[in-house]
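Hey team,

Filing this mostly as a record. A colleague (T.K.) asked me to run one chain through the structure pipeline before their review meeting, and I want the input and output archived in the tracker in case anyone asks later how it was produced. No errors, nothing strange. Just documentation.

Input sequence:
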Amino acid sequence: MAPVAPSPSSSPSPSSSSSSSPSSAGFRPHRVVVLALDGLLPFELGIPHRIFGRPRDARGRHLYEVVTCSVRPPGPVETDADFAVHVAHGPEALATADTVIVPASYELGPVYERGELTDELAAALARVRPGTRLASICTGVYVLAAAGRLDGRPATTHWADAERFQRLFPRVEVDPDVLFVDDGDILTSAGVAAGIDLCLHMVRRDHGAAVANDVARRTVVPPHRDGGQAQYIERPVPDPQQASTSAARAWALTRLHEPIQLRDMAAREAMSVRTFTRRFREEAGVSPGQWLTQQRVERARHLLESTDLSVDQVARDAGFGTAQSMRQHLQTALGVTPTAYRRTFRADGRRGSGPPVPVGA
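Output structure:
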């Protein structure tokens, strides 16, 4: 299983892009319905509203509409804090969704204990239309698994809960290490902040890197943490007595168009290659080579969306050297060619207006 990047099946699909396309006849925003369950974590409930509530098209129209619903008629839903939230929609809202998101809850009852849906929750989920994109944040994955939606498919959850989740749902291919898994029409994430990464990933998948990066800037979060990045890093904050690798990363970001050797990055921090590599992985969660490739893919995406540079020039400016090399890296990371990506995510008022990118385009 390789959830490091979106699978080819996660190319923009009619359910995830055409319904929110600015040039579509009878424009309507893509509807995201968030299922609020008793015991929910308020922070995670707010993530979809914050991320999907920001993107707009070139005409200033919201690209998404975010609605919160309960499995019961409108009314209060208990949280894990000392307050409840009033939810204005009942389960009928699920039938209108293009995407359904299930945040974490600490009161899942038989779902968490035995992997079984309550009658109330089963009836609510039965309203979800076939083809609707499904996503979970942290232990919200229990709901998708109990509904049988994850059998034989890859998924993740909070690293501390992954072993128990795997025992309860042995037919799910659990990866306990990654931030999120994109399996096309079903996406799952680790806990808390990984929900932000997942939602930004879905915006990027639907409307391109420029839109997602704008949302990230407004939310003051990193624009992109790859899904395959480790959830749990033993030393995420460097010891103040130890040297960091941040200066080398900043230096490399200004030189992506140039050949960058590992020894050059290590020299910026006055470290041996071995020490630098170890420290880099501790801080970034990936190797220097993986990080450089990720940054170059993001640079290429930006240039393909926002400029009319030829594919050859984009490849050189992003540091891939040749169009063939860039094509291979984009195919691996995104499942599409540079030309197909540019056709789908233009930044000149036609973003998202192209046809869905076919698998292996």
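Quick notes for T.K.: The beta strands are 30-35, 64-69, 75-78, 84-87, 99-102, 133-137, 154-155, 173-174, 180-182, 186-189. Confidence is low (pLDDT under 50) at residues 1-24, 233-238, 348-361.
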